[in-house]
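Batch manifest line 169
LIGAND: 4'-phosphopantetheine
JOB: complex structure
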Amino acid sequence: MAKDAVAIYPGSFDPITNGHIDLVKRTLRVFDSVIVAIASNPGKDGSLFSVAERLQMVGEVFKGFKGRVRADSFEGLLVNYAERKRATVIIRGLRAVSDFEYEFQMAMMNHRLKPKLETFFMMTGESEFYISSRLVKEVVSLGGDVSGLVPAKVLKKLSQKFKSLGAQR
Ligand code: PNS
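JOB STATUS: finished
ARTIFACT:
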């Protein structure tokens, strides 16, 4: 196991899905600890959940992991955040061919910005490869059932969120 290497798993996590969780668990087979880093893009992104809500959900999901998984958020460039955390590795999941171009561009750009920072890709688990936060939100917003694709607590937050958004309209 890469004992001293800090791995960062960055993303929007809006919200965290079982696909993300599978990836974190598998990362822990190789790295001692992982920081799940929620990108905060104030005023610019169209996230459903606030960073505080996302942090709370991620923290809750991994609370039984004996400190090996930390939830955090960051603003600005990922490579600068990684440097502040003394991380040497960025973890990203690859679901399908469609992810590849975007991921390849990001990895190349990050490498150009900080050549010592490596991006490691993990193939998403076979039962999770079609799950995405975007699809989960769309299905829930249209009344569909996503149980089994996100943790029960996240499922509850999703239905509360869409209820409160519906009530505002
Ligand atoms: O879950 P996502 O939306 O695919 O994650 C994308 C994320 C957050 C990893 C990416 O947008 C990012 O790193 N944002 C931070 C700003 C940054 O460093 N941008 C340049 C990336 S090359």
